[in-house]
Amino acid sequence: MMGFIVSFSFFFLAMVLNQSTVVGQTTAESVLDFPKNDIRDVRSVIIQSTSLEAAGNISASQGVLVQNDIENIALMRKNAIVNYTVTWPTQPGTQTSINLHYNNGVTAYNETWTSS
Length: 116
Known about the structure:
Elements: H1 2-32, H2 36-55, H3 60-78, E1 81-87, E2 97-103, E3 108-114
Antiparallel strand pairs: 1-2, 2-3
């Protein structure tokens, strides 16, 4: 009977230790899974293409093509859904704003960027 109690207590301790390492590993992986550099790269390309369109270097129809290319490349290379909308100024002196949505299945990121 004593052997059964000792073996059961070892089994219980092993289960508790196993669960504690799984929780620690999962927490550490979730921090590493945040695609900070991917979001920065996509964000910078979107801001750059919007500034080119605002400066008149590309037309509005070319801007739509660039937007489609950005969304398709993000989906194919990073397996991430990227959507963004640009709100152009309606009056002189107002600012351009970009609403960015990034989702790779693990991380969902939303940002509103406003020009200065």
